[in-house]
Design goal:
This protein is 18% helix and 33% strand. By secondary structure, the protein is α+β, with helices and mostly antiparallel strands. Bound molecules: calcium ion.
Amino acid sequence: MQRPLNIFESEGKTNHGYDSTLRSLRDCSSPKFQCTSFSKFGSHNHFDRIISLGCNCELALNIRDYFGIERAYPFDWWISENIVSIRPGWFYHTHEDDKVKSLENLLDIYYCSVGRGGPLLLNIPPDRRGRIHENDAQRLREMGKVLRATFATDLARGAKATASQVRDGNAAYAAVNTVDGDNRTYWMADDGTEAATLEYDLGGEKTFNRVVLQEFVQRGQRVEEFVVEVWDGQKWVEAARGTTIGYKRILCIADVKAQKVRVRILRSRICPTLATFGLYFAPPVSEILGQ
Ligand SMILES: [Ca+2]
């Protein structure tokens, strides 16, 4: 089930009071409220707020009433569609030719949207020739080049994978399903299990700075808290921590070199699933662009 929940705000305008509602969702520590992400895209005169919700009945009812969504169930996976303009405004203006968002800003937006499980709809206005302006086109080429270079090689693909438990001991739910490059296959724990560990041996030391996780969302969004740890030769060291995963979570971390990595799911609404565990190395942007 996919339900778009578009939340957009422009400077100086407050729509429907959702700002305070989202803040209360973000800040609420009750396990009855789970907020995947709450991010703000900033620029001088324009910003969007995004939110992805994994919810239980109570929250579903609140959201349903608040946003007029007719149908909401506890384990539905709700996706947020993140809409941002590459320029300050939504339409083409000559005076904004030099105000195309910076590559750094666009990459930040990518990781705050796609990296938190939502599609990114990047608005690119045609100019008065009916073409994409050269400045916009150049920025898009740069963005594409950086993302392709970053996600070219999954360093975890084919890693030796083990799990603290596998549902019914059934190979169909084995941990190896998380490193097979196929998001239709997944690991799953037994009913009643809300915490579990998946461990990966990369077969040699690898350097990485991006961790990609995906739940098998066809079974709903379940994970509520997790930590990614690396083995430093003597002990496990925390590399990243998060709450929900959902369709996709990309964690940007400092460069780390390790052979063994593990994902500890600390809390899950019900028995967790994991479809993908990926590790990538993002080279410096200046290196990718040959600057
Ligand atoms: Ca898989």
